[in-house]
Amino acid sequence: MRLDSIEIIRLALDEDIFTGDITSESMIPDDVMAKASFLSKDNGIVAGLDVVKAVFHKVDQEIVFNKLVTDGTEIYKGQIIAIAEGRAKSLLSAERTALNFLQRLSGIATNTSRYVKAVSGYKAVIVDTRKTTPGWRVLEKYAVRVGGGHNHRFGLYDAVLIKDNHIAVVGSIAKAVAMAREKIPHTMKIEVETENLDQVAEAIESGVDIIMLDNMSLDMMSEAVKLIDGRALVEASGGVKLENVTDIAKTGVDLISIGALTHSAMPLDISMEMELKTEY
What we know:
Layout: H1 3-17, H2 22-27, E1 33-40, E2 44-45, H3 49-59, E3 64-67, E4 74-75, E5 80-87, H4 88-118, E6 125-127, H5 137-146, E7 160-162, H6 164-170, H7 173-183, E8 190-194, H8 197-205, E9 210-214, H9 218-228, E10 233-237, H10 245-250, E11 255-257, H11 260-263, E12 270-276
């Protein structure tokens, strides 16, 4: 597991437990052992089981965590997907944090899978955005991949994406692209956001690698794809919903970026059900 994922887990546990789990510590002796079953209460795609395991081990290294399915598996209402065994007190202390990760990441994977299925049969690839929960980006982008989607840039550091406000400050697409090329490595791609066909033509002339069609109508997207004619990858973005993503794919774009994959995903309903392993 990546070090930044471990840090996210540490911060989440510190936020919840802080100086201690007062309720569990006040009534449950250390020697009480229990079994916790993770029960899916909905249908969806599971993601985050290794994160859950890491949460438990951060609280108590002696907890035994067994996955009954793997990330990316389609799960169903009433299905037990994992079991954790160990000190009851430790299981209870980790419960909320573990479920927060599991429900959130599974929700993103499930949401993403619906978009991926909606464009099945077309060349368009579903990609995410930077519209992620602060601090959770590495995990949420992982969940997108589990759901069958692909990752856009991870941050401001790994690709050039010239947006409308960059263009407004610099003065033109051509000038912005030229300035970027002077500073970036030759291996780095340049993408430009466009809002109309004139900007698309300017982006083509500037020789960019990817042209984003931002909030364009379906007719304008189709025209833009014809105009670009394979000279750059074409990305559709803005206002993408399950209801229109298939129609967007039909225009011939290569990529469809969707902020809703992460910022609007509903958590998958999963609970943790406990039972004693010894007499209390």
